[in-house]
Amino acid sequence: MENTTSCENVTLLVLTYDQLPLLRQCLESVRNYNVVVIDNASKENIESVTSNFPNISEVIRFPENQGFAGAYNSAMDSVRTQYVILLSNDTIAAPGCIEELVRILESDSSIGISAPVLYNLDGSVQDIGWDLDFFGFPVEPQRKKENWEVFYASGCLLAMPTALFKQIGGFSRHFEFFVEDVDLCWKARLHGKRVVVSERAKLFHVRGATLGGGEQDSASNTTSARRTFFRERNIPLAFVQNLEFFQLLWRLPLYVVNSLFEALGMALAGQFPIAKEYFRAWKGFFGLLPVALCVRRKVQARRQVRDRYILSFLKMRNRKMELVFKRGLPLLKS
Fold it and tell me: For the segment 249-263, what is each residue's pLDDT rounded down to a tens digit?
């Protein structure tokens, strides 16, 4: 899959960690764009791949893994173009994908982030963007004819003005992995910007290929210790950073109670490794709370819209409980 045109006002930041065959496929699909590769402390020799792509203007190498959020934040210093596209190495951009995302941004100044529809390699739809339920768990939005607004889009490809990324403080580095895309889109929304998914922009995504355990597999009803830990630690951190005070005052305690019931249910069902991750996550949450409160002060100072509009995308549902009633408790991946 090869694009035939280029966008001179765009820089693609391609984040990679080993998985050289995936990186090669990704770079092949964007070989007509200005690309900066971010090597997040790969053990493999990525030069064997990057040396074949003259459109790569820079390779940024970190001696230690910076996490998803930290790597992108640090690499943004290299971006001089009007727009930046954050792209994971486990993706393949279909022809016209990049142009469509930039076109959307240029067509409407109220749009701060544009994103594609994600497809599995077999052509089935994987992700059309997400809203959130009452407890911050993703639920599918209403899909419209061409473009539709969502609360957040997957971090495997996000297009946005470079200035906006910097104005809202970028990713929350302390999130490390998972939920950082929710938090970034939330901050953009508080800045008065919308998040839009386009059906005309298509991206093929090998789900969880580089990090592992990043998704709950709804087909096999499995999850992972890693996913559980980061999800249960980072969702309440996002609440702390982004909700107005009175919303936070009652939503956070309800989240805690719901989380404790989930952990208890896992323990009673014999899923002790998953239950343990809930308590590890809350220990991690309280350890990072001072950092989150510092970020909160900056986010709330930049806020341009009230929660009344933001919360229209938080549905009065408990999606995890719906899945439990439908499929039973998720099993732990090996």
Answer: 999 999 999 889 888
DSSP for 246-302, please give it: HHHHHHHHHHHHHHHHHHHHHHHTT-HHHHHHHHHHHHHHHHHHHHHHHHHHHHHHH
d(CA 104, CA 160): 10
Burial class (CB in 10 A: 0-12, 13-18, 19+), 281: buried
Q: Using alpha carbons, select from 195, 104, 189, 111 the residue that is nearest to residue 153.
A: 195
The separation between CA 215 and the C-alpha centre of its own chain, rounded to angstroms, equals 11
Distances (CA, A) of 195 to 111, 186, 187, 328: 6, 9, 11, 33
Residue boundaries of the structural domains of the chain:
10-205, 222-332
Pair 203, 91: CB distance under 8 Å = yes
At the topology level, CATH places domain 10-205 in: Spore Coat Polysaccharide Biosynthesis Protein SpsA; Chain A (3.90.550)
Q: Sign of dihedral through CA atoms 125, 126, 127, 132?
A: positive
- Are residues 133 and 314 in contact, defined by beta-carbon separation less than 8 angstroms? yes
Positive or negative torsion for Cα 161, 104, 131, 314? positive
pLDDT single digits (tens) 59-103: 999 988 888 899 999 999 889 999 999 999 999 999 999 999 999
Q: Is the pLDDT of residue 107 over 50?
A: yes
The rounded distance, in Å, linking the Cα atoms of 220 and 237 is 29
Alpha-carbon distance 82 to 242, whole Å?
26
Q: What are phi and psi of 18, to 5 degrees?
A: 55, -145
